[in-house]
Design goal:
Strand content: 5-15%
Largest sheet: 6 strands, antiparallel
Number of helices: 14
Low-confidence stretches: 173-180, 434-439
Mean pLDDT: 83
Structural class: alpha+beta
Helix content: 40-55%
Order of helices and strands: HHHHHHHHHHHEEEHEEHEEHEEEE
Shape: elongated
Radius of gyration: 31 Å
C-alpha cells in the first residue's frame, strides 16, 4: 500500500520516466530470453534450462502487461502533450501497437492448452512477426533517442549558432562592398565545410542500415516460409538428409499422392541432441522387456511389416501446428501384438536412436488406433531432421511424446518419466483437453 501511495504522489513526468525505464528493461529481458527460446541450436545445449527460462519469459511478460496497465490512464494526457510533435505521436502509436501485439499473442501462447491449436498457431506467427519488427525498432529507437546522441545534436546546434554569429558581420560588409548574395572569403570556406548530413543524422542512418542489412535477410527468409504450405519446405529439408536407408520404402496408394492433400503449415526443427544419421546397414528396431516374444528387425525386415495410412494434425507444445499430414507406418498396437505383452507390462517406454531422448505411454494410450510407428510422411521418407527414418506419431498428444529416430520399445511395469517430463513437462500431453478426445 505504501508503494501504491508513493506512486500516486509522483508527478506526471516522473511517472512517465519510470514507466519508460521499466518498459525498456523488460523489453530487453524479454528479447534476450525470447531469442534463446527461439534458436533451435540452443535447445540441445540448454534442455533443462529452457523450461525454467520459458517460465521466466512468461513472468516477465506478465510484469510487462502490468507496466502497460499503469500507463493506460496516463495515455490521454501524454497524447495531448505531444499533439504538436508528429514524430513522437507516431513513435508512441507504434510502441503501443507492438506492446499490445506482444501481450495478446503472449497470453494466448501462455494459455495454449485451454484454446484451440489454430489460435496458438496464429499467435506464434504473429508473436514472431511483432518480434521481427519490434526488436529492430527498439534498437533503432534506443540509438536515435540515446543521451549521447542528444548531446551530439545539442553540440551541433551550438556550433551552428556560433558559426552564424561569426559570419554575420562579414556578410554585411561584403554585401555593402560586393553586392547582395556574395560571401566573404572566410564565410564561403565555412559554408563549404558544412557537411550535407550532420554527425548525429549520419549515426542514425548507419544504425538503420546496419539493422536493415543485418536482420533483413533473415526476416525475408522467415516471411518466405509463411507462404509455403509445406511442400517445398519438406523438399528443402529432405535435400540435406544424411540418412542412407536402402531400399527406400514404397508408398501405399493413399500416401502417394497423400490422401490428406499435403501438410499445411511449417515444421520447426528442434532437437535435444545433435541430429543422428543412420544407414540401413547398421539400423535396428527392437521390442523387449515384459513381452513373451522379444522382436528385432533390420531395415528390410521392418519395411515388410503391414503398414497403414492415416491423416492427422501435428501439434508442438511450443504453439505451432502442421495440419492434415499423411502418415504411413505400422500401428504401435500391431507391434505390441506381435511381441505379446505380458500381464505385468503396463507401460511402453520408447528409446530414440540419439541415445538420449526417451518417453513413455501407458499401455492403453499406446493401443489407441492412431498411434503409429511412421516410416513415410506425405508419401516420402521421413527426413532425418524430422525424426527419420522412423518416428513415433501420437496425434492426440503434443509432439514431444512422438519420439524421433525411434529404434527401441521396452515394456515396463512402472511409469517412466521421459526426457522432457523430468524437466517439467506433463506426462499426459493431451492436446486441448484432459482425455485426449476433445476436438
Amino acid at each position: 500500500m505504501d508503494a501504491w501511495r508513493s506512486w500516486l504522489k509522483e508527478s506526471f513526468g516522473k511517472k512517465l520516466v519510470k514507466l519508460h525505464s521499466w518498459n525498456a528493461w523488460l523489453v530487453l529481458l524479454l528479447t534476450v530470453t525470447g531469442i534463446v527460446l527461439f534458436i533451435p541450436a540452443l535447445r540441445g545445449e540448454m534442455g533443462g534450462f529452457r523450461v525454467w527460462l520459458k517460465q521466466l519469459h512468461i513472468v516477465l511478460g506478465i510484469v510487462s502487461i502490468a507496466v502497460i496497465a499503469f500507463y493506460i490512464p496516463l495515455i490521454p494526457k501524454h497524447w495531448r502533450q505531444i499533439r504538436k510533435q508528429a514524430n513522437q505521436r507516431w513513435n508512441l502509436g507504434i510502441v503501443l501497437l507492438l506492446l499490445a501485439g506482444w501481450s495478446i499473442t503472449g497470453l494466448i501462447l501462455w494459455q495454449f492448452r485451454q484454446l484451440p491449436p489454430a489460435w496458438s498457431n496464429a499467435a506464434l506467427v504473429l508473436h514472431d512477426l511483432f518480434t521481427w519488427v519490434g526488436v529492430p525498432y527498439a534498437i533503432y529507437h534506443s540509438v536515435s533517442r540515446s543521451r549521447w546522441l542528444k548531446r551530439m545534436r545539442q553540440q551541433e546546434q551550438r556550433e551552428a549558432i556560433a558559426a552564424r554569429q561569426s559570419t554575420e558581420p562579414a556578410e554585411s560588409e561584403t554585401e555593402r562592398t560586393n553586392g547582395a548574395g556574395s560571401l566573404s572569403p572566410q564565410a564561403f570556406v565555412d559554408y563549404l565545410k558544412k557537411a550535407p548530413i550532420s554527425r548525429s543524422a549520419f549515426i542514425k542512418l548507419v544504425a538503420g542500415l546496419l539493422i536493415v542489412f543485418g536482420i533483413g535477410p533473415a526476416f525475408y527468409r522467415w516471411l518466405k516460409t509463411l507462404g509455403d504450405s509445406g511442400g517445398s519446405a519438406l523438399e528443402h529439408i529432405a535435400a540435406s538428409d544424411d540418412n542412407r536407408m536402402v531400399p527406400a520404402p514404397e508408398a501405399l496408394p493413399d500416401s502417394s499422392p497423400p490422401v490428406g492433400g499435403g501438410g499445411q503449415g511449417q515444421f520447426r526443427i528442434y532437437t535435444v541432441t545433435d541430429i543422428p544419421a543412420f544407414t540401413s546397414d547398421n539400423w535396428q528396431f527392437v521390442i523387449s522387456g515384459l513381452v513373451e516374444k522379444p522382436q528385432s528387425w533390420n531395415w528390410e525386415q521392418f519395411l515388410k511389416l503391414k503398414r497403414k495410412v492415416q491423416v492427422s494434425d501435428f501439434h508442438c507444445v511450443t504453439g505451432w501446428s502442421v495440419y492434415k499430414m499423411t502418415w504411413e507406418g505400422i500401428l504401435l498396437s500391431d507391434l505390441l501384438d506381435i511381441a505379446q505383452v505380458k500381464a505385468s507390462g503396463k507401460f511402453v517406454k520408447m528409446y530414440s536412436g540419439d541415445k538420449v531422448y526417451t518417453d513413455c505411454l501407458s499401455l492403453e494410450q499406446a493401443r489407441m488406433d492412431d498411434v503409429m510407428v511412421a516410416v513415410l510422411m506425405d508419401g516420402q521418407p521421413i527426413p532425418q531432421k524430422l525424426g527419420g527414418p522412423v518416428r513415433l506419431i501420437v496425434p492426440k498428444m503434443y509432439a514431444y511424446k512422438s519420439v524421433k529416430w525411434l529404434q527401441a520399445i521396452e515394456l515396463i511395469d512402472k511409469e517412466h518419466m521421459g526426457y522432457w517430463e523430468v524437466r517439467g513437462y506433463d506426462n499426459d500431453a493431451w492436446v486441448n483437453g484432459s482425455n485426449g478426445y476433445k476436438a
